[in-house]
């Protein structure tokens, strides 16, 4: 009986004798390959890191804006809930925004813009009172600037609604 061999499939004895397939030759990555991968990762990290650093002032500005919007909404909610006037005061000199009960001047909430990582400052002072129906006594705009040249505006409407620009 003769063995049938297919020329497309190598014999089992031929596979074990092929050069380069000895168990000692399969040891993983070479030092050169590992260094190339490390260099590529280093370059990608440096490029993405500098891009992310450029976004920090904008993220900080967004945080300041969201906080002031939250304070305006909090003042309005407290006025409706307590059925009395609540004062929202942003002071340019102290660089702060405060929410206080009008009748006894007790502090409900305070935000100091100088506590943020990047310099933020108010363009001008602004004060309004929210009544028991949530309406603002004086419409106005609270504008914030930072040291990177960015600015955002928080607009308080007579209806008491708050929007940003």
UniProtKB/TrEMBL annotation:
<dbReference type="InterPro" id="IPR012902">
    <property type="entry name" value="N_methyl_site"/>
</dbReference>
<dbReference type="InterPro" id="IPR022346">
    <property type="entry name" value="T2SS_GspH"/>
</dbReference>
<keyword id="KW-0997">Cell inner membrane</keyword>
<keyword id="KW-0488">Methylation</keyword>
<dbReference type="GO" id="GO:0005886">
    <property type="term" value="C:plasma membrane"/>
</dbReference>
<dbReference type="GO" id="GO:0015628">
    <property type="term" value="P:protein secretion by the type II secretion system"/>
</dbReference>
<keyword id="KW-1003">Cell membrane</keyword>
<feature type="transmembrane region" description="Helical">
    <location>
        <begin position="34"/>
        <end position="56"/>
    </location>
</feature>
<dbReference type="Pfam" id="PF12019">
    <property type="entry name" value="GspH"/>
</dbReference>
<comment type="similarity">
    <text>Belongs to the GSP H family.</text>
</comment>
<keyword id="KW-0472">Membrane</keyword>
<dbReference type="GO" id="GO:0015627">
    <property type="term" value="C:type II protein secretion system complex"/>
</dbReference>
<protein>
    <recommendedName>
        <fullName>Type II secretion system protein H</fullName>
    </recommendedName>
</protein>
<feature type="domain" description="General secretion pathway GspH">
    <location>
        <begin position="64"/>
        <end position="160"/>
    </location>
</feature>
<dbReference type="InterPro" id="IPR045584">
    <property type="entry name" value="Pilin-like"/>
</dbReference>
<keyword id="KW-1133">Transmembrane helix</keyword>
<keyword id="KW-0812">Transmembrane</keyword>
<dbReference type="Pfam" id="PF07963">
    <property type="entry name" value="N_methyl"/>
</dbReference>
């Amino acid at each position: 009986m003769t063995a049938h061999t297919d020329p497309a499939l190598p014999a089992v004895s031929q596979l074990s004798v092929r050069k380069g397939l000895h168990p000692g030759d399969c040891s993983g990555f070479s030092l050169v390959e590992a260094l190339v991968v490390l260099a590529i990762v280093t370059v990608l990290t440096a490029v993405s890191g500098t891009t992310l650093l450029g976004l920090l002032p904008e993220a900080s500005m967004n945080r300041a804006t969201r906080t002031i919007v939250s304070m305006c909404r909090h003042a309005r909610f407290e006025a409706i809930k307590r059925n009395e006037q609540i004062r929202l005061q942003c002071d340019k000199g102290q660089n702060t925004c405060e929410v206080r009960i009008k009748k006894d001047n007790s502090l409900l909430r305070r935000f100091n813009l100088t506590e943020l990582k990047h310099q933020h400052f108010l363009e001008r002072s602004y004060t309004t009172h929210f009544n028991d129906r949530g309406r603002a006594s004086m419409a106005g705009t609270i504008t914030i600037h930072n040291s990177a040249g960015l600015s955002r505006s928080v607009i308080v409407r007579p209806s008491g609604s708050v929007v940003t620009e």
